[in-house]
Amino acid sequence: MSSADEKTYDVVVMGAGSTGENVADVVVRGGLSAVLVEEHLVGGECSYYACMPSKALLRGTEAIEEARAVKGAAAAVTGEQDVAATLERRDSFTSHWDDAGQVRWVEGAGIDLVRGTARLEGERTVVVTRPDGGETRLTARHAVAVCTGSEAAVPPVEGLPDVEPWTPREATSAKEPPRRLLVVGGGYVGCETSFAWNALGSQVTLLQQGDRLLPGAEPQAGDAVLASLRDRGVDVRLDAEVRAARREHDEVVLTTAEGEVRGDEVLVAVGRRARTTAIGVDSVGLEPGEYLDVDDTLQVRGLPWLYGVGDVNGRRQLTHMGKYQARQAGAAIVARARGEEVRVEDWSPHTATADHAATPSVVFTDPQVAGVGLTSAQAEERGLPHRVVEYPIGSVSGAALFADGYEGTAVAVVDTEREVLLGVTFVGPAVAELLHAATIAVVGEVPIARLWHAVPAYPTVSEIWLRLLETWRG
After folding, report:
1. Model's pTM, two decimal places?
2. Could you tell me the sign of the dihedral formed by the alpha carbons of 229, 235, 237, 241, in that order?
3. Who has the most CB within 10 Å: 136, 271, 293, 453?
4. Which CATH superfamily is domain 3-43+99-151+273-354 in?
């Protein structure tokens, strides 16, 4: 290997998705050198197959329905959604799956980029197999950050791999709506995909193995989304375990306990697995295929030079949480490189403690589901003294103005000893925009007594905060 094929950097980042980009950006801003290694598209899942295309598919439907929910405006909605234009808009948000713009950003930020497949080869060493078949050996002075993310998990169902199921990648990048789409899994991806393609003309059947949708959210959320999907004609089947799959000519046939269900395509949305199978983690004593076990600075336990950031550690598999972890990990790497103290404590600039009890998330269905912190079930599991407060969002003036017949629910989980919020969930149209206020209250552990003085403007949907507090007071 020539000297041109051997390079040394302060930090080597495996994976140039949004998490890897943020790690590299933070350390370069901190005065270190960094290189990103990417085998596919710079920008990763969020830019091309997840957040951006999926929300672009959903937004047109959301805009139409918001207009139809207001008398006077509803009369202006006289046609149906332009499916081709919606798909074209989706494609524009992915830059038509061209990462040239992201590459320009990387170069402009002073970060090097190596294209190819990366694998660890012992301590602080990453070997990249380039597209031309050659190899580049990268050595890190301070840290290697593994930001290889996760991939869709396909359950061990007889015949399922043979029917070539869609993963979320295919579901968000399809060039036209399938006539009949089978969706296996009733979590975030399954519910959002069912809404999106149903609105664009597909006949959708959603199969959920459990007894409710969105099992990780408050029960009110799953109930509302279930009712809305069924109202739109989606065939939602709960307690529907898929036992076998096969193709008959152009049809996909799934076998459940209650019989067979047929479609043209099947999306499997039942979870994720770590992308650590083929990246050489065994060369440093780790188990391929497993999530990386990290501390709150995102350092892999027992390997002080190795960091596992984002989906690859399995802590919180959300784009914004991957970016958050990246900022914290980058700050810890810079501090350690400078010989500075790294503060491993709650809410320090070097730790990702929001992962534990203050993670925000949004399901972009109709109604939307926006939540942060602990659900009532999670508070119960942790043995925390708590009380659940619930109030109908449609009862506040701002919601009535936003949409005729507004229906929604707000649920707050309150620590009864400290009198602070443990978690908040909103279910209803456009509630995602309420979430950050709740996030601040949960992260800041703002006392209920102080929240009384955070006066919501009238008439806005944010009045729901006052109603929750009044309900708490009783």
Report:
1. 0.96
2. negative
3. 136
4. FAD/NAD(P)-binding domain (3.50.50.60)
